[in-house]
Amino acid sequence: MDTPVKTENKLHPKELMLWLYLATTAMLFAGFTSAYLVQRFNQSWKTFDIPLIFWVNTLVLGASSLTFIYGYRGLRQENPWQLQVGLMATFGLGMLFLLGQVVGWQMLARNGIFLAGSHRGASYFYVLTALHALHLAAGIIIIGYWMIRALRYKVGISSLLGLRLAGLFWHALDILWLYLVVFLQVNQLL
Amino acid sequence: MATHTVATVHGAVSTAHEHHEHHHETFWTKYIFSQDHKTIAKQFLITGFAAGFVGILLSALFRLQLAFPDKSIPFLETILGKWAPEGRLDPNFYMALVTMHGTILVFWLLTGGLSGTFANLLIPLQLGARDMASPFINMLSFHFFFWGTVVLFASFFIETGPAAAGWTVYPPLSALPQAMPGSGLGMILWIIALVLFVVGVLMGGLNYITTVLNMRTKGMSPMRIPLVVWSLFTVAVLGLLSFPPAVAAFLLLLFDHSLGTSFYLSDIYIAGQALPQQGGNTLLYLHLFWFLGHPEVYIVLLPALGITSELISTHARKPIFGYKVMVASILGIAFVSFIVWAHHMFVSGMNPLLGSIFTATTLLVAIPSAMKIFNYIFTLWKGRIHLNTPMLFAIGTVSFFISGGLTGFFLGVSSMDIPLHNTYFVVGHFHLVMGVSAVFAMFGGTYHWFPRLWGRMMNERLGYIHFWLTFVGANLVFFPMYFMGMGGVPRRYYAFTEFDFTKGWQDLNVFITIAALITIIAQLIFIYNFFHSMFYGKPAPMNPWKATTLEWSAPVKHIHGNWTGNLPVVHRWPYDYSKPGAPADFIPQYISDEDIARGVRWWEEDFDPTSVIDRTDTPSGDEKVPTSPEPTPIPALSPNQKPTPDAGYPST
User: Model's pTM, two decimal places?
Assistant: First the structure.
């Protein structure tokens, strides 16, 4: 669903700023993943199996994006209940994702795959996933803020922009995770 | 409407709006947590200059060491304590001094200080905006910068001293805490400071780009934007693309340093003991660092050249020669700057074929750079040149850009770079082309826009003395370094008397040190002039330089929102100087042809720009629309209430 009222073809300044911020995040991860590729084809590089839970988590995060869209439509379709449910589900799924990441890291550690040491594939895996998790934690705080406001009926139509920006950030982290998990998986298979 | 011609800090330009703009300001909201872009510009200017001054004082210390490596200077022990036992600088501390000098001047003075000051001051004012797109993020931008400064300077006061691996902090020296004292806690603080700094710069950059794209006043089409704003905008884009990979490099470095990973480390033996880290690659750090590092040169240089464009055009009373070419060269330099980084790494062991490719792209930089020089000279040609302080500094910038830039050819060619790499030739080159050149533009910009910031003029006579001492001094310091470099004298060495092949240069080192000390002392004249003029300078008229750009049409008095009434509407490009047939040698951007026909006398001392700006047909009360895109508060949704779709959706 698109915004029906657009007086001009310009992005709202805050939306533009968010897009620019996302560009810096993209460059940050581009920096990390290109560093990964530079070292990937080194002789001493070792691959390892990525636990399935990281893929399950991908579905969890994808679902959270859908629940966010559901909630956002609730706001637009005059349905505060739908907004509340959508945001609570998004928040819950976000937390579940973080929990899943922690479980995944523990499984890796049980298999003897640690951050420190000379196993650079593992080091990159931890750095990339942890950095994404940090971003996602920030996203959860933002979603949590809107959820609490929605539960107290403090979200009106005037919050559309703010909620849309929160959603943009959340979806971007979803896409970033998809990129990372595919990137990391493909590099284990090669 | 008042018609005061003199707007001073304490006086004048009163309007009906003013009193309610000033209600709730306390010391904290006005000076510390200000969201006003003009105050933030002042914060960046003063913090940047203060950091920069400490940075050059550090160079005084290591210059003393280089001139008199075997002499005891008891005074050093008095001020430095354990870092100068018996009056001789500790070698580890010497490395720390060199590192911190580079870090402070490149990042704090010439990136944060230069862009932060002039982007904050000029982008909203020259584009006719009330403030930045997000004044709050703008405030945060300065505060991150400031706390980065605090962390960086805190590292002087820790047991092991500040980072000491050179300003580029190459591993393994920077990645192994046991390598040298400066590789310990100092290195961690350096990385934290840099990350805070980058966050600050990026927050600023997001604002600059958004403001330029979204907040321009009516009539400010892209080809009417002053060149300095074009360059600041381009620099913000460069920063946005190049700083994040550098953060990635620094974070991986921090992991190697403190958490035992081996991204950059492999096959290292310390005192016969092999380290466990295997398989890392130092070259990776170099690639990531220089992917920032080279655009960083233009992040420093482009604002300087933008400022120079304004200064030369205004003080030569001539339109800038080749405006569109200037815009194209800014964009061209920005683009090329992303594909030249490996010319810093010709001797690093990378593939020689890559070296020849990067040689070719590096030499491409000469084309847009030469276009700019050509245009500066042709702007000056047959102009009515006013050799006042801002103009002198602008010409100085161009001269250093030439004398430093020409040696870039030597270093850009991989075969020539092999003997010259890591010698004083490089030190001379980058100090002239980006260091002194950009500092001169910053001085020139400060002298030029000081009346816009504080409503008073800086002292011209002191300005002349400052200029000539600094100009001659900087040449005497850095030009001889070319000869030392060609003689093979390496940079970052602690004492040249230790080696036969460098002993012959000792007299020249003494000469350079004396010149450097005189140049550094000359900066005290500037500091005195700056603070004295702030309070006691000659009150400035509203448009002291008879300039065309919009910042001179707004009152100097601290008004949040810049213009008291309407926003100015732009009718022409920013360089209408000495236009044939015009009644004065400049036509401000907000003067329309109808205004000229109407007989508006904008060149007169007591002209009040609001008489033109507020006359336009723009509906009154527009002042809140462009700055606060916040929708009007609407009562929150209660469980059974039906909202109107998109009521209150902000239109930009």
Answer: 0.90
